[in-house]
Automatic annotation (TrEMBL):
Places the protein is found: Cytoplasm, Nucleoid
Listed InterPro entries: Nucleoid_associated_NdpA (IPR007358)
Keywords associated with the record: Cytoplasm
Any Pfam family the entry gives: NA37
UniProt key word Ribonucleoprotein: no
Recorded superkingdom: Bacteria
Record's protein name: Nucleoid-associated protein YejK
Family the UniProt entry places it in: Belongs to the YejK family.
Amino acid sequence: MPIQHCIVHEIDKESGEQPASLRAATAELASSPLLEDLLSRFHDAYHAKTKAWGHFQEPDASEPGSATPFAQELTDYLEARSDFAAFSQALANRLLPLVDAHLSASGHLLCIDYRQGETHYLGVALLHQRTGFGIDSAMRVVPAAQLNLARMSLGLRINLTQWRDGAASRHYLSWIHDRGGKKLSEDLATVLGATEGIDATGETRTLLKAFSDYVEREDMPEEQSREKTEALIDYANEQAGRGEPITLEELSELLDEQQPKAFYDHIRNADYGLSPEIPPDKRTLRQFRRFTGRAGGVSISFDSHLLGSSIEYDESQDRLIIKQVPKQLKEQLKQRKE
């Protein structure tokens, strides 16, 4: 991931009533293997977080210069009307009130302009430090400060290529939306002039529901169902790890090479209302799995999200209660009764 520009500013959050202050860097960091490694670690930590996905609020076409302040500053930087240091310092000052309102610790604001393949990105994150241990040249144990990337609660990433190309994408901008940090996420969106364009959690849930319906409709054998479930989850997690969306057509081809449009057509024909590209929600993916069991001539397989809704387990009496019997099974039972 070639780094174009990188700078780190310090935001000092003192205890008490003193507001957060900025100690701005005046020069960019030179690219190095260590900085490349930090970018890679930032990538991993950021994509492991739950995020909101959206876009900048649309400017009024009849009013030149009506873009949101941050979007205008970003445009000025990309069109070389300001340099990266000035642009990042202005952003750091915009973020100071958020640190005051929502965070209790100082941190270093990492601002990094980089490319991944042919795509141009801007990443921003407030990184906190923790004290660890190290060994000095005399083989003594000494305190050593290190960045705590897992604690990152304020961060964003912009796909500059999609935004600048004027693509129809409504999710070229993402920002951290951790559980318990809803107000911070909302205030960050306000600072950025951003609005959510897609509900990643809801869309991921709907995609998994569409997949469950597809498996049921095709009446797949248990082994085939499990293989396709694993293929879907592996692909979705791989996309999540790279910060890329699930593409429905690509997923459909992956699930069935013989009928590459089958799953895609199922989604469209059933009108689930899914976007062609879905930012995967890792928390929702982690909760999705299939329960399976076979004994005494009975084979049962169902998706975990059905437990507690259409399927209940009565542990005291060791009973599995199916509230919605599959249509095909229902018809077979009726025929048998006749």
